[in-house]
Each structure stands twice: as structure tokens, then as C-alpha cells.
Amino acid sequence: MSARTDGHPGSRGEIILASRSPVVECRVLALTATGATLAVPAGTVVTDAITLAIAGEFVMRRCRVVWRRHRRLGVAFELPV
Predict the structure, then answer these.
(1) What are phi and psi of 21, to 5 degrees?
(2) What is the pTM of this model?
(3) Going by C-beta distance under 8 Å and a sequence separation of 6 or more, which residues neighbour residue 53?
(4) Rounded to an integer, what distance in angstroms lies between the CA atom of residue 4 and that of residue 6?
(5) What is the pLDDT of residues 60-79, one digit of tens each?
(6) Phi, psi angle pair for 8, to nearest 5°
């Protein structure tokens, strides 16, 4: 996944796990048209299906986690957006 350079990398994000669960703060490390790399706080448990909201955007993306390494997640955007 190659990063875009449109100002999104480094943006704050929120991971929404379920309607009654609190959101999980994250940092967007890389963003493409098809997915993103996210940094999450240590010890955070993230399910395989999430909704991602990125600061400054008016859309929320349904995602699936495709890889996990330490405190980082790779997510693919589900279609339709």
C-alpha cells in the first residue's frame, strides 16, 4: 500500500467498533484509495471489521483489518464506501 501525500498521513482518526462501544483514537500513518495504515495505543483490541473516521473528512469508511504488527494495523476499505 503506497501512501498518498495529501496531508492525511499523521491525521487523527477514530476507530468505531460497535454502536455502544467507545471510539478508539488512532493515527493515520498512510492512506491510499483502497486502505490505510493505522497506529493504535498499546493494548488496544480491534476487531476484524471496523468503521474509520478521519479528522477533517465528512465520510466514515467501513474497513476490514488485513494485517496487524505491534501497534499498527493495515485496513482495506470495504466497497461500497
Answers:
(1) -90, 150
(2) 0.83
(3) 13, 14, 16, 23, 60, 61
(4) 6
(5) 999 999 999 999 999 999 97
(6) -75, -40
